[in-house]
Amino acid sequence: MADTAPVQPFASEADAFRHGLRDALGLPALVLLASMTGFGSLARESGFTALIAVLSSAAVWALPGQVVMAELYAAGAPLLAIAVAVAGANARFLPMTVALIPQFQQARTSWRWRYLLAQMISVNTWALAMRRGPSLPPEQRAPYFSGVSLVCMGSGVIGTACGFVLAGALPRVVTLGLVFLNPVYFALLFAGVRHRAGVLALLIGAALGPTIHLAWPRWGLPMTGLLAGTIAVLLDRAWEKRRG
Amino acid sequence: MDEPSLWIVLAVATGATYLWRGLGVAVASRISPEGDFASWMSCVAYAMLAGLIARMILFPAGVLGETLLEDRLAATAAGLSIFFIFKRNLLLSTVAATVLFIAIIAVRGA
Known about the structure:
The complex is a heterodimer of chains A (244) and B (110). Chain A is 77% helix and 0% strand. With 244 residues, chain A is mostly helical. Chain A folds into 2 domains: 2-182, no CATH class; 193-244. In chain A, helix 12 runs antiparallel to helix 13. Chain A starts with 12 loop residues before the first helix and ends with a helix. Chain B has a domain at 67-110. Chain B is 78% helix and 0% strand. Chain B has helices spanning 3-28, 36-58, 69-85, 90-109.
């Protein structure tokens, strides 16, 4: 598993890709399978076809945005409202992409390849690459990230299909457990972050997020990110300065 | 409902999400990887994700809203405790928190 993986470069780029596959094949794949099962069921109840449900997991590849899309479609919302709501729910991809993509630039990857890598970003793949990437030689980072992403996206797509088929057949308690698995796994995944600025940002974000969300349901998350992220950076700087 | 409108909904949702990803790549190519802007963006990303996760647990949308806040908090707290007690074991703590949550709601439902 990623937590216990030794921090050393891989033998080759192909080896980095294989390790990416392997790091994702455990808990990340299981969590995606389970949480996308929840989405598959929701998609069916919202009137989606199986093809659209499965395609959305690969094309949108962002669970909160997919949930918003399905719920608004079921409610008969106009297209513009769906576009704005999905953009609001998925705005985290801007800072996530800006933080991750520079990892791949030192290896002189082509710009087309970088736009493709950006499509593979999700909370899971981002967290694994942010943790492991910097310790790898630049040319092994994109192969490692691709391996992680291939398994994660595959599991997400399979989970969506399973959920679509199983909709209504699972016991209520199990469905609720599968839906709960997603946030609790992410909470634990980020509890493993060790660098000070990241820890500060996570703590302040978790504290401010729910309150700001109540005030601005649609754009509360970007506001939380900007506010809590900026406070975290400033606190981290002040701390650094005091230490001298 | 008719098929074509579903395809348009999918295209719109994909576009609205890729907009941020594409913009991110464009911005990333203009900044230094180890610079101040990159570390600020990484903090903004962490804060947004933490806010999202906290919101999903405290004010869940959809079916999870049927469960009690104290049950969700108890299972999350148990997961975090196990995570730190057992040397940051992600698998153990995730499974324990989820199983505990299912057990609590099963008992309440019985």
